[in-house]
């Protein structure tokens, strides 16, 4: 057998083929570069592992945050590591708590009871005859055996939550529970919104991943790829509809109002805030630019 032929070299004596920088050494049990390993975790829906690997990349020194992946001939592909890791971690944290807005409307007990189409309980004046009450007859006096507000006789034994802490009417039962974001009684939808807002505290013990109060939304609105991932993180993970609406408005203005995706997101923010007329306008405007099934379903909800 003859010896294998040596690899061809350039004029300067360098080997042909892919050249990896010093910060691209294989890492992890899979033998992949950390960024590709995090992307592999994301594709296999292992979002917690993906976020952990991205956190390790973001903790690197500033000198290792710019990476040159491959050099072939006259073409050099430059990749900014910190932006890729930041974007990937943002998407991973969003996918961990993502809930489809179309399938979120589950009819619970509160939605069935709180019906807008109610029948008047009291007749209009002059439309009915006043009948004598049944308690005016020869029945026993209520003073003999006192009763509660609901009409149950008070016995010699007091059970918990039967006399003092139990509401007597449906209005009193739904009057106290309220969320921190709205004055609407707790339903399946409002309870889900509150659970989405606490996801940042549950998944990040050290605090939120992104400090929204110090974020320059105008700067990120000019970067479409980062802006879309940041919007979904703010809307689904942080449940901050106001900042999400501000980012979507700045991004659609930067896109010269030609991007239908941002119009749908603005409509979702308006729908979450209860501005249904404005949401309807945004969905109809998005349908004029791009006919999508999701947009039609959002419009049907309005």
Quick structural summary:
Helices cover 44% and strands 4% of the residues. The chain is mainly α.
Characterise the protein shown here.
The protein has a two-stranded antiparallel sheet with strand order 1-2. Helices cover 44% and strands 4% of the residues. Helix 1 runs parallel beside helix 3 and helix 10 packs antiparallel against helix 11. Among the domains are: 76 residues, no CATH class; 108 residues, Serine Threonine Protein Phosphatase 5, Tetratricopeptide repeat, CATH 1.25.40.10.
Question: Roughly what fraction of the amino acids lie in strands?
Answer: under 5%
Percent in helix: 40-55%
Number of helices: 13
Give the N-terminus to C-terminus distance in angstroms: 76 Å
Global outline: extended
**Fourth-tier CATH superfamily name of the domain at 194-301:** Tetratricopeptide repeat domain
For the biggest β-sheet, the strand order reads 1-2
List the helices and strands and how they pair.
Layout: H1 34-43, H2 47-58, E1 66-72, E2 75-80, H3 81-97, H4 109-113, H5 170-173, H6 188-197, H7 199-203, H8 217-221, H9 224-238, H10 241-254, H11 260-273, H12 276-289, H13 293-301
Antiparallel strand pairs: 1-2
Helix pairs in contact: 1-2, 1-3, 2-3, 3-9, 9-10, 10-11, 11-12, 12-13
Labels describing this entry:
two-stranded antiparallel sheet; mainly alpha; extended; Serine Threonine Protein Phosphatase 5, Tetratricopeptide repeat; 302 residues
């Amino acid at each position: 057998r003859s010896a294998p032929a040596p690899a061809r070299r350039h004029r300067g004596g360098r080997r042909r083929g892919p050249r990896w920088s010093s910060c691209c050494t294989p890492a992890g049990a899979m033998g992949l570069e950390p960024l590709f390993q995090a992307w592999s975790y994301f594709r296999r829906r292992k979002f917690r592992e993906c976020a952990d690997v991205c956190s390790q990349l973001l903790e690197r020194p500033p000198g290792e945050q710019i990476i040159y992946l491959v050099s072939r001939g006259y073409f050099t592909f430059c990749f900014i590591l910190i932006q890729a890791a930041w974007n990937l971690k943002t998407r991973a944290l969003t996918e961990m708590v993502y809930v489809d807005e179309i399938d979120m409307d589950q009819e619970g007990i509160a939605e069935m009871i709180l019906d807008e189409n109610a029948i008047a309980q009291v007749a209009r004046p002059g439309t009915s005859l006043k009948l004598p009450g049944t308690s005016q007859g020869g029945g026993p006096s209520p003073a003999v055996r006192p009763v509660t507000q609901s009409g149950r006789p008070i016995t010699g034994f007091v059970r918990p939550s039967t006399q003092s802490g139990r509401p007597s009417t449906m209005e009193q039962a739904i009057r106290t529970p309220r969320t921190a974001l709205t004055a609407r009684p707790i339903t399946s939808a409002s309870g889900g919104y509150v659970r989405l807002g606490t996801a940042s505290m549950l998944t990040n013990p050290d605090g939120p991943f992104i400090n929204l109060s110090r974020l320059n939304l105008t700067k990120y609105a000019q970067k479409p790829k980062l802006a879309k991932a940041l919007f979904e993180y703010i809307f689904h993970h942080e449940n901050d509809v106001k900042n999400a609406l501000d980012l979507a408005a700045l991004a659609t203005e930067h896109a010269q109002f030609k991007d239908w995706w941002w119009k749908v997101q603005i409509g979702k923010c308006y729908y979450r805030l209860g501005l249904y007329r404005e949401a309807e306008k945004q969905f109809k405007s998005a349908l004029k630019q791009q006919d999508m099934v999701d947009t039609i379903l959002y419009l049907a909800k309005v």
